[in-house]
Design brief:
This protein has helices spanning 20-30, 36-50, 62-68, 73-86, 110-113, 142-148, 186-189, 198-213, 221-235, 237-254; strands at residues 52-53, 70-71, 91-99, 119-129, 132-136, 175-182. It is an alpha+beta fold. It folds into 2 domains: 6-189, Roll (C8orf32 fold), CATH 3.10.620.30; 198-254, no CATH class. Strands 5-4-3-6 form a 4-stranded antiparallel β-sheet. It is elongated and about 60 Å long.
């Protein structure tokens, strides 16, 4: 007899939950648990805190994210879904179309915001438990939330009780469209990269790592920017130079002499 949620138990090109490492990890996380809710919760917390959030290239199979131990929101959701399916739990995705320049919240530096798309896509997870779909988002890891959640509501730590939705604290006005549950996001994964690689992605990932590691008390983005620029100057001088280049690009824009494109050095 076909499972009523069979579409949400399939392996796909990017949700490769039949990979031996994913099967092994799912078993390790759920080995002592007997009911589906406990298994899903354990997988959620494992992905949330073992897969460090970063920005950049999201074109990764779930097994690649498991190996690398870091990933974008899309990668974390994909691994969560893969591990749930490996544990026999029907799981899918939520696809949000959001305002690209604002949905990250006040942690996004103004300079970065100028070069972001007007719209973006945010992917999260969903799991079928006790006859209903529950939406969960394991995107932001504990240390990232600890460092930024006190002044950036979007990054407030997400906990899950296994019964209610557990989502990032996005501003509702930044959400343009929602689709959930979706059985596969392979079509999203195959879309052409824009800012997902090269020096711009490296700059973004460096900023996230800086946020996670920063120990100086800050209460706003205005206080973060000089600290980050100082960090670039000391630790990543070539990115410091690229930062200054971006500032020059903005100056040209204000003078209505915008260059044709920002180079992306892969």
């Amino acid at each position: 007899m076909t499972h009523p949620q069979a579409e949400y138990l399939k392996t796909t090109r990017f949700c490769d939950y039949d990979h031996p490492d994913i099967i092994r990890q799912a078993r390790a996380v759920t080995a002592t648990l007997s009911n589906d809710t406990e298994k899903a919760v354990a997988i959620f917390y494992w992905v949330r805190d073992k897969i460090l959030y970063r920005v950049g290239d999201w074109h990764k199979r779930a097994s690649e994210t498991l190996y690398e131990r870091e990933g974008t929101c899309t990668n974390a959701a994909n691994l969560f879904v893969a591990m749930c399916r490996a544990a026999g739990l029907p799981a899918g995705y939520g696809v949000l179309r959001v305002k690209g320049k604002s949905y990250f919240g006040p942690v996004m530096l103004p300079l970065f915001r100028q070069f972001m798309s007007e719209e973006s896509v945010h992917i999260y997870g969903a799991v079928f438990l006790e006859g209903r779909w529950i939406q969960v988002d394991p995107s932001d890891d504990y240390d990232f939330c600890r460092a930024t959640g006190h002044f950036n509501p979007t990054a407030k730590l997400v906990d899950w009780d296994g019964r209610n939705n557990a989502m990032l604290h996005l501003n509702p006005s930044d959400i343009l469209d929602i689709a959930c549950p979706v059985a596969s996001i392979d079509d999203q994964m195959l879309k052409a990269r824009k800012n997902g690689k090269g020096i711009r992605a490296l700059m973004g990932s460096t900023y996230v790592r800086f946020l996670r590691a920063n120990r100086e008390t800050v209460s706003s983005c205005d206080e973060l920017q000089p600290l980050f620029v100082k960090y670039l100057f000391r630790k990543k001088f070539y990115l410091y130079l690229f930062w200054q280049y971006l500032r020059c690009v903005l100056l040209f824009r204000r003078m209505n002499r915008e260059p044709q494109m920002v180079p992306d050095i892969s």
